[in-house]
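ARCHIVE CARD
SHELF: 3
SLOT: left
DATA:
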Amino acid sequence: MIQTTDPKQIDFKNLFSLEGKIIIVVGHKGLIGSAFAEASRQFGATVVGFDLPENDIRNENDVVKFTEKIVQEHGKIDGLVNCHHAKPDGFFDRVEDYGDKAWDEVMDSNLKGTFRMCKAVGESMSKTGGGSIVNLASTYSVVAPNHKIYDGITQPLKSPASYAASKGGIMALSNYLATYWADKNIRVNLMTPHGVWNNHEEIFEKNFSELSPMKRLSYNYEVAGGLVYLLSDASSYVTGHNLVIDGGWTTW
């Protein structure tokens, strides 16, 4: 780091560059993950995807072997993005009917999967000078859902308690790791997107818009800019932070 009080000595534009960085995106085939991967590439990173069916976040052996392979091929890992989540059979069941199998699968993938990947990559980063880890939380790990947005929809869409609980766990885990690895130059942050458009039913878009300060859903590319910031040197003094990109939803 440059010790200076003169901002003219800093190339601010270059701080956002990901040139030469090796970034792992877990869930890179998904709606948000695909935008994350593309944005990282456009800013110069080499992006390596971890996703089904090739790799399973619920299998620790897959995680360890994958991490070792990336280090062997590239010599380091500079960034890790955990944006995966599971939707097993029974995922949308109401609380009173929720089964242990669905609950355990969500926890195993979302929370334990995030821990598995953070553990493997964090150990590697600690040996190669540090890096940046970004985990995805959820609006429903910050506030409770407003169930009115689901009124009248015909497709299963409600966010279940298992999802909120797993994402709440990811928030706590990320805060812990942020301080645990801070002296290793490993920054751990969170991102919380909300209401990302994905060809939703018209009635859902209407319900959502009526409750949102910005009166609309977001798009996946609107979330990706925040990721570039957290992965880049522009956020070199940011750790333990939750970057909320929700159109003001949690500000009400």
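SLOT: right
DATA:
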Amino acid sequence: MNSPSRLIADSLHIFEEAGEPVQVALTNELVQLLSDQLYQSPLKAIEELVVNAYDADATECRIYVPSPTDQDKDFIVVFDDGIGMDQQGLVDLWQIGRSNKREEEIQRRRKRKQIGKFGIGKLATCTIANRLTYVTKSDNQVLSVTVDFNDFAASPTGASEPITVPVWHVDDWDKFTKETYIQGLLELACVDSSRFFEENVESWTIAILEKLKSKARKVTTGGLQWVLSTAMPLKPNFRLYLNCEEVLSSKESYEKMFEFDIGELSETRLESLTENTGEEWYVKDGCLRSQSFKSGVSGNVIVTKKTLLGKSEDIERSHGFFIRVRERLVNESDALFGLKALYHGTFNRFRADIRADDLDDELKASRETIEESKLKVNFRFLLREIFNEANKRREDYERMLDEDQPKREGERNVVSPRLVEHPVADAIITQVADALGAEADEGWFYMALSAGTKIDELIQSLYTIPRSKYRYQYTRSGATSRLVKFDPSTSTFWVNEDHDLVKEYASEGRTRIFLEDFVTAEALLEVYLRESQVPPHIVGAVLERRDELLRSLAKDHPYSLSAISRQLLDAAVDEHELEVMLVVAARALGFVAKHIAGAGEPDGIARFTDYPNGEKKIILEAKSSAAVPSLSAIDFAGLHEHMQRHQADGCLLLAPTYPGSSRKDNSGAATRAREQGISCWTVDQLARFIAVAESRQLTARQVLDIVLNCFSPEEVSEAINNLLAEPTWGTRDLYQVILDALQELEGRLSDSHRTVDMVATKVSDIPLFSSIGKEDIERAITDLAGASQGAMTLRGQTIIVHVSHDELERRLEGLTRRSGEPRKQSGFREI
């Protein structure tokens, strides 16, 4: 329904006034102060009306709030079936600064402890509406009163004339429903007129807010429902409905690890509490009591299996301490109640509902905060002990789960889900709005969910479904990209092959496994930080800095030839770095190399003992340039002088490219290189040579042969191409296919030995090795037997394997760079 042109507040004059009007003395400044300062949240304004319903002993309260997008409905309604208000009750309603709720007559009629204390709650409605109308039944009489907050005059001096508010006697309910839109409004709130507006119904109250302000348009159903489900004392004898949906206590939907009553605290914790507060604490009638808390502190604690955190504009906290004083929540926004940060793994799943009526005297007028006092300090000590008890019980619970696992190898979760799946789910819940982010400021640094991932289903599976073993996939993502991208929806870690750390450690079997362990821990470090509520931009900044450190460390001590090859390429335009990487490359190939540099000196000297020809020495020179270096910049004559002064046999000159390299042997660089005996290598050629050096068993001997005999860029290129052309396979590849052939033969002809011929037949069937000679295979088998640490022997043409194939692979990792299956089956990773 749409709002009619005439408001309910403007329709009441169709009835006669009942008795004397209400005099309300307030300044506009006071109205604004009380409403905007004490009740800044629009949700609190609606909550205050529900509090009134609860305090009126209502068994049912129904609310209607329009959605932010429904601009046609310019009203909010709160209905309750409580005791209602008579003429005096409406007068008392506007006595600001005191409340009659606890007076003897009212208390006699009511059965509950009252929440309201100061009588200013109705002013909270000023934050969301300009007009507030009450229609209420009591003593078989229906009365109504309207206050327009705009009527309160501005008064800088603080003095103000009271406004007169008539009380209307609604003596004809049918007439009222016909002349106003009250019936449609009640239908939106799902108020059953046949139940509540018959003559035999003794009491009820309708609060109607009209001429809504902009704050009211920001009230969402989700946010209001959270406030009502967590802040209000929802009990069997008080049912609450929001837009026709029942609001249930938020505790009802959580699957619990455990729960306990705070009266169950151990003697040890009570002794600690006594020592810290200076008061003796004891349990009586299920409550914790002390000299300061004579009425007792009661309540219960739950720790849930899933995190209670949520990041959304509509959803507020469901975790932490919920402190109620006279049944009213007093720490809506402070989950810690002033304590320092607690263990987040427990705290994010922790909910303690605590009743402490002795704090009532410390309560501030807004009922949202408590005065700092000795009483509050002692209360915090109690909260700390309650949390510590919950934390211990959680640790015991998870230890029990870790122990209560399948006994079969490979099925036990040595890596507990509480270290992987559960915190991942927790972190996604807390940052669900950023789950697909990619930037370091607010999005995820390492996590990257697959497109189309259903977040709710993923979270549910991480908490409940048995683990899918994790896979490690290697991909070229670029030198500046992240170390790893973790996709929990596919149980995959995507490892960036272009990252400096990966280039250094991915080529070796066992170091590769360690690298995968490291990227797992690195990705989960982000998860742990976010789970602990560290702001995303801080997490990103820390991990960015850490990534820079990892890259630097990997470059500081390179071992991997693959990493050295790529660092050499990266250094092509860096004068000093190219010098160093040329010396490093020489060492990687087997030279004893030294970096010299300095004016009038070559960049380095490399020595190699060439048996039986004795030691050979060459000088090393690097010419970095973003463009093609000129002949004068290369200075072939100067390099020849370096060779003579150091009594070197040759010179390896390295540059990104050479002048005239697009022409044939008549180029200036080619001519001078031959004349001076300078071997001209490009950075790409040397990097390529190093990248395959191990697999093709290339050493300083082959480099020395090229340096001493090939000089022009074209000659060097041809020599390298010829060297790498045959054979087309690498020795490491040959080792691996021999082991594969032995595995294929395993279990066949068990009464016969394996022979070199059997293996050679299997190997030669592979296209890459179709032209291989038997002598190459026999030589490789000899290498494998020698490196197998007794696992394999070669006697003539007979191959004898003394261990399982998996163990043989493990022992030959040094040659094959394959780690083989682990000796213990993994419950975490897919091998």
